[in-house]
Design a protein that fits this description.
mainly alpha, single chain
Length: 237
């Protein structure tokens, strides 16, 4: 939140208008619900079920909203979006051998909440980015503090994890800011489906730095992602 506020002041962004303030608060609530549900689903369920369901819903919701609000895109772009969604399912599959449905309900809640979070961010007025993000982060922080106080849950992480947590927070904020800028200059459906391809980058980085093997499913997903990006880029030109 602090970084977003500082950048907003440097950019000279005004305090969000009433409408943007409302969207930002709603976004903060959805963000907390989505991420909390995802982590809980991963804790009680199978990654091979939770990850694909969450990832696909998080992409489908804003893409569908984009089609409704902005109309259908060029056929090549629509084809690319379809391939990108298939890619998300493939790269988030896990060969953990599980077939149970534990965590499925939470995965659905997580996917819908994250997808709606993207739709809400897309409603923010053009030119306003970091000021609304400050409100989003403040809302998330207040909600998390309220939950911690009510449940009396442990909240202090080990000092060794603090740098990593800060880094994740900065990266997450940068991703949200990039998404807002993308939807302000382009189509919601395109921005949403391209941002949903982040698991592809995760797989590639894990392969490079952690030497994790790439399964056939992952390789197929990465290949489809490349084709999808080419199609979307060509169709949007």
């Amino acid at each position: 939140m602090t970084i977003a506020l500082v950048i907003a002041l440097i950019r000279g962004e005004a305090f969000p208008a009433t409408v943007d303030l409302g969207w930002s608060v709603v976004g903060g609530v959805l963000g907390v619900i989505g991420i909390s549900s995802l982590y809980r689903a991963l804790a009680v369920g199978r990654m091979g079920i939770v990850a694909p369901v969450t990832g696909l819903l998080a992409a489908v919701v804003p893409v569908a909203a984009g089609f409704v609000l902005e109309g259908l895109l060029a056929p090549m772009v629509v084809l690319g979006i379809g391939l990108a969604m298939t890619s998300v399912v493939l790269v988030t599959r896990s060969d953990d051998g599980g077939t149970g449905r534990d965590g499925l309900g939470l995965a659905v809640v997580a996917g819908l909440s994250i997808g709606l979070f993207d739709v809400v961010l897309a409603q923010i007025s053009d030119g306003s980015v970091f000021a609304p993000l400050t409100v989003v982060r403040a809302t998330e922080g207040l909600l998390i503090m309220a939950v911690v106080l009510v449940t009396r849950a442990a909240w202090r992480p080990p000092r060794s994890l603090v740098p990593g947590i800060v880094g994740v927070g900065v990266a997450d904020m940068a991703g949200n800011a990039g998404f807002i800028l993308a939807v302000q200059t382009g189509a919601l459906a395109v921005a949403a489906v391209l941002s949903s391809l982040y698991p592809v980058a995760t797989i590639i980085l894990a392969t490079i730095f952690l030497r994790e093997p790439v399964t056939r499913s992952h390789a197929a997903g990465i290949g489809l992602a490349v084709v999808a990006i080419i199609l979307i880029g060509s169709g949007s030109a």
